Amino acid sequence: MKKQLSIILLLFCTTIMVAQKGKVQEGDWKNLKNITAFNLEFDYSDLEIPKYDNEEEFLKDKMQKREDKNPGSGEEFKKSWFADREDRYEPKFIESFNKRWKENEVVVGKDLADAEYTIKIHTTFMYAGYNVGVVRQNSKIDAILTVYKNDAPDTVLFEIKYTKAEGNGAFGNDYNSGYRISEAYAKLAKTFAANLKKKAKK
């Protein structure tokens, strides 16, 4: 029994590591060496959502289902869907990345006055997952991170694509979709910071 549990745990950990792995699209990690601060730009354009042709179709469907049950709740869902980006996802990414550097060797943020470089985080895929108590699914996001100097946005210094960064709350306590998705951004930031430490700071 212990052997079976060990094998399951190993497979689970392996899946997580593979899912978090990034693929360099352009440039090299060494291009980021000695950069200590990055401004962040978040982009959610052309967002792919499973089972829907586009984000508009997703919102229309989700809003209608909520309106049928409780008038007014559809519009509330739409407001929270967009508000969660600035209120949850972006702060979570920043917090998760920055806490990996105990001496503040590298920091990220929005509108950092001293940062000469920008990381554009383009979320290309988003799955909210679900939690109905007895059954749940992690959230998942794909994102392309593009680094460039502020005064030369068309010159890509480095670009990497991460797929299936998963988010979930501790002990399955993640009934809110915005919270689940924010945890996926935390995982994305954690992975990027770990890669940066290992591959760019040598």
Q: What are the salient characteristics of this protein?
A:
4 helices; DUF4468 domain-containing protein; single chain; two-stranded antiparallel ribbon; alpha/beta; Rossmann fold; 202 residues
Concise structural overview:
The chain is an alpha/beta fold and 202 residues long.
Residue windows where pLDDT falls under 50 for at least 5 positions: 2-19
Shape: elongated
Main sheet overview: 6 strands, mixed
Radius of gyration, in Å, reads 18 Å
Assigned CATH class: Alpha Beta
CATH fold topology = Rossmann fold
Work out the count of structural domains: 1
Protein name: DUF4468 domain-containing protein
Description:
The chain is an alpha/beta fold. The chain has one domain (21-199): Rossmann fold (3-Layer(aba) Sandwich). The chain is built from 4 helices and 8 strands; from the N terminus they run αββααββββββα. It has helices at 2-20, 55-69, 73-98, 177-199; strands at residues 22-27, 37-43, 107-109, 117-127, 130-131, 136-137, 139-149, 152-167. Helix 2 packs across helix 3 and helix 3 runs parallel beside helix 4. The model is unreliable at 2-19 (pLDDT under 50).
